[in-house]
Design a protein that fits this description.
Blueprint (H helix, E strand, L loop, with lengths): L10 H8 L6 E4 L6 H9 L5 E6 L2 H10 L7 E5 L14 E7 L4 H5 L25 H7 L2 H10 L6 H14 L5 H12 L8 H11 L2 H15 E11 L2 H15 L21 E3 L9 H6 L7 E7 L4
Parallel strand pairs: 1-2, 1-4, 2-3, 4-5
Antiparallel strand pairs: 5-7, 6-7
Helix pairs in contact: 6-7, 6-9, 10-11
């Protein structure tokens, strides 16, 4: 297997937002190749610390090797960031980072099945211990459920047509490889600026890894482990995920009322805001980064600071 090498996006902007310093603790819920975490540990010398999580065993092994010079200042766990509060005490972290992008090695290694550009098994699992693969979904889901998936998670306008094509073809022969599925879509939809299978592959990956559910749970868990004054930084690559993060921050920032009493003014109980949204608009990659790493083009960074409660 090739070396796990990943170019971290918005590295400078993440460090500016999370403010590394000696003695501070970062929980990186999506460790990947440890680019952000390496920079954090370097900038928080001599005794800044890191808790790193990743579902991908290959990523963890690569990260451990990369971070060797900081031995004693970090701990790594194979875990889903949805459960990050199982690895840090309440209000113990100065910063939490979630980078929701798929790492370059996952895209580039054919045997992981993430890319339609390389023939490999139709897999897409970030954690190989999980039971459901993309092939399972493509070969067993009803046509209307496939269409809804491609529309909701892929924003694919031809979702119903593609679902119909898949269901008709799988009666004759099951889908087993990435290129088999990609070629069926390309043959029937033609090619444009982006490959016509792009959004379908995105939707399948997000469903296989339950990425929306993980994000919603991970945001709540991150808020529990953050100290007052601590910051949560989230990098998204999909409009649905970006909207979830934006809405999460706005809900915590505004005065709100106790659930269930909003329609009865006499029982409304206003509470103080829990957060300050640091990024009114998402931060995107500068031109010099885009020249080095075109995959950063769709990255959006949002940062939320936890306020102390009186």
């Amino acid at each position: 297997m090739p070396e796990f090498v990943h170019q971290s996006v918005l590295l400078r902007e993440v460090l500016e937002a999370l403010q590394p310093a000696s003695g501070r603790l970062l929980l990186d819920g999506t460790l990947g190749g440890a680019g952000h975490s390496y920079a954090w540990l370097e900038a928080s010398s001599p005794d800044g610390r890191l808790i790193g999580l990743d579902r991908d065993e290959a990523a963890l092994k690569a990260a451990e090797e990369r971070l060797k010079k900081f031995t004693g200042r970090f701990e790594l766990h194979r875990a889903n960031f949805a459960n990050l509060d199982a690895h840090a005490a309440p209000e113990s972290c100065d910063a939490v980072l979630l980078d929701l992008g798929v790492s370059s090695p996952q895209l580039d290694w054919a045997d992981r099945g993430f890319s339609f550009q390389r023939e490999g098994p139709l897999d897409m699992r970030m954690d190989q211990r999980e039971p459901v693969t993309a092939a399972d979904i493509v070969n067993t889901w009803p046509e209307d459920e496939l269409a809804n998936l491609f529309w909701e998670l892929g924003e694919e306008r031809a979702s119903r047509r593609i679902a119909s094509l898949i269901v008709k073809r799988r009666v004759v022969r099951k889908f087993e490889t990435t290129t088999d599925l990609a070629e069926l879509i390309a043959k029937n939809l033609g090619r444009g600026k982006i490959h016509p299978a792009t959004k379908v592959f995105q939707a399948l990956r997000m469903e296989v890894n339950r990425e929306v559910d993980a994000l919603e749970a991970g945001l709540e868990a991150a808020w529990q482990v953050l100290k007052p004054g601590g910051r949560l930084a989230v990098i998204t690559f999909h409009s649905l995920e970006d909207r979830i993060v934006k809405d999460f921050g706005r809900a915590l920032e505004r005065d709100y009322f106790v659930e269930g009493e909003v329609d009865r003014p006499e029982f409304r109980q206003p509470k103080s805001p829990e957060a300050k949204v640091i990024t009114r608009k998402p931060v995107t990659a500068a031109e010099d980064e885009l020249q080095r790493n075109p995959r950063a083009r769709s990255a959006k960074l949002r940062v939320i600071e936890k306020l102390a409660q009186s």
